[in-house]
Amino acid sequence: MDFTHSATLPIGVFYQGQLHRDFTIRMSTVGDEIAVVEDGIPDSGTLVGVMARCLTTLGSIPAEEITYQLLCDALVSEDYQALRTAQQEAKKKLSGLKSDSVITDTPSSALANTATAKSESEALAL
Fold it and tell me: What's the pTM value of the predicted model, to 2 decimals?
């Protein structure tokens, strides 16, 4: 399944003499956050750095040109909010999936049973 969302920015990003408004963004992962830190982006720019990594298309801007610096220099606050909303929509696609497994209250391993028994034993020792 594709965990992306496509939409149009209210204002757009001006790049090389053109305004770019159509975009596709994917949901972010912990790996994106780690990569942003490793790239040396300041804490205050983490969300923008992650957003740059997650934008798969932005108009006709080449993917390798969709960077933290480009977004810092050319993205207006209305468009930033639109991208954040789109990322949440992409995440909803994942959270809307139903699990094939059934969750029960019964422990599924001997280790889980041991932990329960130990807790009960400790309670009796008091």
Answer: 0.73
